[in-house]
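I am going through a labmate's work and have reached the protein record below. What it holds is a sequence and that sequence's fold in token form. Please read both lines and tell me whether the tokens look consistent with the sequence. Do not assume that whoever made the record got everything right. Thanks in advance; the entry in question is below.
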Amino acid sequence: MTAHAAFVPARLARLAGVEARLFLREPVAVFFAVLLPAALLLVLGFSIPGFRDPDPALGGQRVVDVQLPGMMVLLSVVTLALSTLPTALVVYRERGVLRRMSTTPVRPSALLGAQLVVNAVVAAAATALTLALGHVLLGTPFPRAPLGFAAVFTLGCLAMFAIGLCLAAVSPNSRVVQGAGAAVMFPLLFLAGMWLPRPLMPEVLRRISDVTPTGAFGQGLLDALDGHGLQPLHLAVLAGWAAAAGLGAARLFRWE
């Protein structure tokens, strides 16, 4: 390995460390992305008795076994992808941070990579916290298909983060990106089954959900949690969204 090749990951690691410390200094971001999903799982699981009873509409499972944990994992990733990540990048652009970095040996793309690494690590930590607390306090099982869960989680993060980069690319300022993120987030969460589980959706709505990034991501998480095989359609949808949004972000993103 050449000295330059060894320097690139070291530089990325240092930048990721700086970005991680900045993230931890933002209590609102930590709360909504990390603590809120786990707290909602416990609050809803303990406060709604029906969530701890077998539900025929869910194949005899309890809501707290699969549906609720899966949706809370999805909520964490979507919050990071459509709020935290794009807002941070747009603020950096507004303040001229990216423009100033372009005159130094540290390229702006390195900051983008560090942001992606930090958000991916935070998403994984939030997921681990949610699943662990659910298992210990509510008796929810860990993913019955752990490799499938890891695969769909990774692909879902790629798709959602790519969409977040598209938002950052086309938003002129932080106010716009926050409003656009919320406008995109809530319909996508609905289509994922956050408030109306997919088995209870009308057939037409479920078909629409299948081709949305959150619908495919959410159902993939539920399948892996329950030990079912992942559906090729949902994997293809996530890969397609990741590729399309990633290419769009690369073409549209402005450093200044």
Notes: Residues 155 and 239 are 7 Å apart (CA to CA).
